[in-house]
UniProtKB/TrEMBL annotation:
SUPFAM superfamilies: PUA domain-like
PROSITE patterns: LON_N
Gene3D superfamilies the record matches: LON domain-like
Organism lineage string: Bacteria, Pseudomonadati, Pseudomonadota, Alphaproteobacteria, Rhodobacterales
Source superkingdom: Bacteria
InterPro entries named among the record's database cross-references: Lon_prtase_N (IPR003111), Lon_prtase_N_sf (IPR046336), PUA-like_sf (IPR015947)
Protein name, as recorded: Lon N-terminal domain-containing protein
PANTHER family referenced in this protein's UniProt entry, alphabetically: ATP-DEPENDENT PROTEASE LA (LON) DOMAIN PROTEIN
Annotated Lon N-terminal domain residues: 11-204
């Protein structure tokens, strides 16, 4: 378990569109670009082994690639090297952060000064959603999966804890980058569930359809 005092002021960031990491959830990544191989090598040398996931935020008329204000840091908990010197890694979400500014340096990857303030709940135990109507939510999911021609292990979904289920769906469903960011920034599990339900209901009413569960 991380404590607030263990979290650094500066974090290496991996700006990856559409990639969502949430606290206590796991995100598999394929690392192959030289700059991110260097980032991984440096992350493995420090005790926390933290990498910050944050989505790019391109603004019309502004040069360069900006970053969204909020991301999530994950600890490298698994990694394996392929024969062609690429890495398959797993990040386990630790805490969200707010980007304060980018930090210049000699590293080939981007680094940011961040604030962890306001995300104390991320460092605790799994959240519970007291207003969660699980049967109703599962019925909505069944209609959504059928409409999108998706398949899944329903027994596993039905047995999953509330937070694991909501967070896994938030991370895995093929939603827009903006929707992923909204799910990340949801202040509580209940808010994230409500946001996810709204997105699913919108899709069922004829919104942008997802082709697959990645």
């Amino acid at each position: 378990m991380f404590k607030a005092v263990d979290l650094p002021q500066t974090v290496a960031v991996f700006p990856l569109p559409g990639a969502l990491l949430l606290p206590r959830s796991r995100l598999p990544l394929h690392i192959f670009e030289p700059r991110y191989l260097a980032m991984l090598d440096d992350a493995l040398k420090i005790p926390g082994r933290l990498i910050g996931m944050v989505q790019p935020n391109e603004v019309p008329g502004r040069s360069g690639t900006g970053l969204h204000a909020i991301g999530c840091a994950g600890r490298v908990t698994q990694f394996s090297e392929t024969e062609d010197h690429r890495y398959m890694i797993t990040l386990t979400g630790i805490s969200r952060f707010r980007v304060l500014k980018e930090v210049d340096g000699f590293q080939p990857y981007r680094r940011c000064e961040v604030s962890w303030e306001g995300f104390d709940r991320d460092l605790g135990l799994a959240e519970h959603d007291k207003s969660y109507n699980r049967p109703q939510f599962m019925e909505l999911l069944e209609r959504y999966f059928a409409s999108m021609n998706l398949s899944t292990d329903w027994d596993t979904l039905k047995q999953a804890e509330d937070e694991l289920l909501v967070n896994s769906l938030s991370m895995l469903l093929d939603l827009s980058n903006e929707d992923k960011q909204a799910l990340l920034e949801a202040p509580s599990l209940a808010t994230r569930r409500e946001t996810l339900i709204t997105l699913i209901e919108f899709a069922l009413l004829g919104g942008v359809k997802e082709d697959k569960l990645q």
